[in-house]
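Reopening this ticket.

The earlier resolution said the output was attached, but the attachment link was broken on my side. Pasting everything inline this time so it's all in one place.
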Amino acid sequence: ELPNFEMPPFDNVGANEYIVDVAHDAVDFISNADTPYPFEWNIWYHTLNCGFRTRVSGETDFPCMSDERVGAGRSYVHLPQSLTYDAWCAGVRDGRCYTSDGFSHLMDFTVNGVAMGANGSELRLAQPGSVRATARVACLLPPAPLTADPPDPTRKPYWTPEHARVAGSRDVTVELIRNGRPIASQRVRADGVLRDVSFDARVERSSWMALRVMGSAHTNPIFVVVGGRPIRASRKSAEWCLQAVDQCWSQKMGRIRGRERDAAERAYDQARERYRQIASESDVE
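Inline output:
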């Protein structure tokens, strides 16, 4: 289930102090695609539900996480002009990209014509209403699975479009996500052909929206702001983040240099206070 409310130990690799830093508006992007996707997406979804606008990128972390190859987790960045390293970095920062294992593609994602990564990825609505999301989608799978058992998201390969395969077919499911939950889906033939998809959805309150191919590709969000109100999608997400700060502190406090511990504790306390404030502002459970 995504998002879920299980609490990770925060004692090993992974996002760890992201949960604190994001509350200080000190994070541009969070990396995906080199560990199990439910772990990576869950913490990101919860912070997006709190109104933070962290973008997502691909990551290999070669050779620390894996020495198999570089490019396992990819960031496909839309560059309106010529390719330069600075332009590519700016595209990641602005969210003009999607993350993929290379076998699924989610291009040109828009909501009501607002393009992902353009003008802050923000669509403004004066009042609740219907929106249309569009994209160009491609995926590649063999006609039949190579193994009889479905893939386990906690075992390698962590990212593969097999997670999204419709049983008994060569199709995958492309999902429209609102505040971490799928609200619409389409089946797409995974034969490598680029196809247009569109979804119609209702937006009642300020929300974030994205597309995903489960365990294989994820767009950056488009933020739909209704009536000028901030995104406060889930009180439970804010409470999960608050508990996560406590759990992270329990693991990190003993490893922080003595003369830096007071400053670190203040930073954690400020993060706690911000999550408490967000929870108090959230009228959705």
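Reporter confirms the inline version is readable. The helical segments are 18-21, 37-49, 85-94, 235-252, 258-281. The longest strand covers residues 129-139.
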